[in-house]
Structure to design on (260 residues):
């Protein structure tokens, strides 16, 4: 069997997968009794870590996979960024906790880009010093090690559901979202402006997708690592099975000739 090692990481995520709602009061995976770090819960707001963490060591050349905005953040040259936890991972046997993959919704401090899919969360709701823009269209995977610490207030179940309903409708995956008045009753602020009709909003979305390299590239590296481990294990198992089969054949042949 010939081994074809991957020469570079390929980021290939589907951002249009429908995410299942979860029980906000229950954690189902992870035992962190030996750690003081709380378990990320759906609806919580977490600060994104600036450290480059991956089971694969990046070369200087591979670090250029990051967009310029992502590199600026990792270097500490741009403001802190936050995400809302959407879904906690299932338990994965023999996987280091820091490589567990969460689903998160990106939050932005740039609040001048309100649209039908970018909703403003006022500071009085988030508990942070400034308002945040919830990018309902932008749910991506993130490694546990990229979640630095919880901040502010955990969003209510009603707000959590509202954000995901807006997102699902945007991708044609669910019912029509609440009317503006109902969204505003939750304390959120949105706009009737469709992102599809605004070049300004579309450019903002492209910039945010580029920044999200901070989270998606480590996930790609982790998946590449796990894929290589699984492939290696498969090769070893096949080699062991072949050796066992050959040993059986040799034993059978030896016994056959001993009869004569």
């Amino acid at each position: 069997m010939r081994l074809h090692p991957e020469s570079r990481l390929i980021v290939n995520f589907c951002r249009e997968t429908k995410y299942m709602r979860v029980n906000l009061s229950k954690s189902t995976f992870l035992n962190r009794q030996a750690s003081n770090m709380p378990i990320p819960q759906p609806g919580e707001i977490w600060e994104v870590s600036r450290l480059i963490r991956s089971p694969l060591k990046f070369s200087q050349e591979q670090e250029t996979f990051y967009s310029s905005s992502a590199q600026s953040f990792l270097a500490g040259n741009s403001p802190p960024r936050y995400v809302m936890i959407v879904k906690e991972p299932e338990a994965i046997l023999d996987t280091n906790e820091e490589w567990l993959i969460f689903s998160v919704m990106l939050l932005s401090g740039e609040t001048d880009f309100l649209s039908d899919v970018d909703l403003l969360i006022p500071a009085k709701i988030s508990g942070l010093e400034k308002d945040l823009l919830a990018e309902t269209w932008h749910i991506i995977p993130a490694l546990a090690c990229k979640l630095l610490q919880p901040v502010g207030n955990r969003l209510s179940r009603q707000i959590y559901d509202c954000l995901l309903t807006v997102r699902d409708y945007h991708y044609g995956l669910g019912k029509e979202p609440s009317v503006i008045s109902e969204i505003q009753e939750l304390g959120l602020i949105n706009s009737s402006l469709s992102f599809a009709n605004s070049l300004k909003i579309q450019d903002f979305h492209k910039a945010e997708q580029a920044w999200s390299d901070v989270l998606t590239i480590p996930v790609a590296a982790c998946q590449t690592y796990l894929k290589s481990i699984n492939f290696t294990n498969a090769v070893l198992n096949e080699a062991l099975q072949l050796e066992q089969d050959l040993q059986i054949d040799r034993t059978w042949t030896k016994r056959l000739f001993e009869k004569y």
User: Anything to note?
Assistant: The chain has one domain: 45-234.
